[in-house]
Amino acid sequence: xxxxxxxxxxxxxxxxxxxxxxxxxxxxxxxxxxxxxxxxxxxxxxxxxxxxxxxxxxxxxxxxxxxxxxxxxxxxxxxxxxxxxxxxxxxxxxxxxxxxxxxxxxxxxxxxxxxxxxxxxxxxxxxxxxxxxxxxxxxxxxxxxxxxxxxxxxxxxxxxxxxxxxxxxxxxxxxxxxxxxxxxxxxxxxxxxxxxxxxxxxxxxxxxxxxxxxxxxxxxxxxxxxxxxxxxxxxxxxxxxxxxxxxxxxxxxxxxxxxxxxxxxxxxxxxxxxxxxxxxxxxxxxxxxxxxxxxxxxxxxxxxxxxxxxxxxxxxxxxxxxxxxxxxxxxxxxxxxxxxxxxxxxxxxxxxxxxxxxxxxxxxxxxxxxxxxxxxxxxxxxxxxxxxxxxxxxxxxxxxxxxxxxxxxxxxxxxxxxxxxxxxxxxxxxxxxxxxxxxxxxxxxxxxxxxxxxxxxxxxxxxxxxxxxxxxxxxxxxxxxxxxxxxxxxxxxxxxxxxxxxxxxxxxxxx
Length: 511
Fold this sequence. Notes:
The protein has helices at residues 136-144, 182-195, 215-221, 233-236, 239-258, 287-300, 317-321, 327-346, 357-361, 367-374, 407-416, 446-451, 461-465, 470-485, 491-494; strands spanning 9-10, 18-21, 30-32, 35-36, 46-48, 57-60, 63-68, 77-78, 83-84, 109-114, 120-121, 125-130, 166-170, 200-207, 229-232, 263-266, 271-276, 304-307, 383-387, 397-401, 421-426, 439-443, 458-459.
């Protein structure tokens, strides 16, 4: 179907009062029989299919996305100038839509690396974690000695170790000037999650020596003694000596890390983090539901998918409580949303401040609309558990992790929880990586995919173009997941993304 014959708008549900423009619609363009655009409608934005009185609910996906703030006539552009948030009752209907998940008869496999503890890795990195910002530069100097530059000619420092994917320095801006309560416990939970991650063959931790987050306290609290090497700058004798000791450690373990070999592993060993960033009006039509179809395949093969970004689930949580396997699980999710309401109020913010300027430019108006599209990434299977930020994910199936909506912080929590692969949907064109887990980028529309093809792995704009169904695109995404888990490099890996995006959630006051 070409641009001259395809319908100019997409209506997602029979109860919807708005439709989405496939392309920019000039004023006067026929939208549906009997309705013409009353103004220019940007691509991906909403156009009214019927009149709405002030205060009346506006629906997309068959769900409320906001309320009219002024009269809206058929054919009008619907956006921030005439649509806003409002309170409405949500029926949590605990578990009413929970159903038995049918396993697939022929299990899928990928080529993974089986670690001594039985877990399966999708990558084979050596990691450097830091207790505090004061040790960040030293960690980066150590990693730099083994770095590959994707934009420069020169020898590969790991050429003799082809089974090693890289040496990763994960630095952050905290670790001191903080309280020793929940903020410190959360940071240590993140660091421990990365220290234990199966995609690291070996890990070294670098500290300064006088910080709040003492390495000894980290090892004791998280039971990491014997799992990683530690170096303290003040005790080792300063920057140069610590860098030399760190480089010596990496050289010492390279041969052992290089001995890893890939063998067939069932898809049940996949733990996939679901992320979206730079969303647009097409996200909930193409990439997110297609990733949802792929997520269902992961779960039906016995694997795990992690939905997160609590502020981007807000307002749509009642649709997930309906899929919860128990009222207890559903109530955990609702408690997360209540915490965020209190947290944002305490900080002088509001939940609807979440859609970014880029989101709004792409056609998303309220957090309700964004949430309804974002949660499509998790597919249709039961919600089996709700986890705190960076908590180890042990359940199989679809789970939720409480994280901020800011992509690097959310992704850091998911990977700390054990995700060995990430799928990241984007409509505006986010560039991102999340070492040690490979990140697949899914484009919502073909023009952006073509413009940023060096960064995007999968084009889901085919759904909008009419050349592929959601289910077909989901099956293609799942096959790409298996190839990536088997060692095929993603676009973000080829560009070297993934070190700088490490961003633990910072709670509490900076002292």
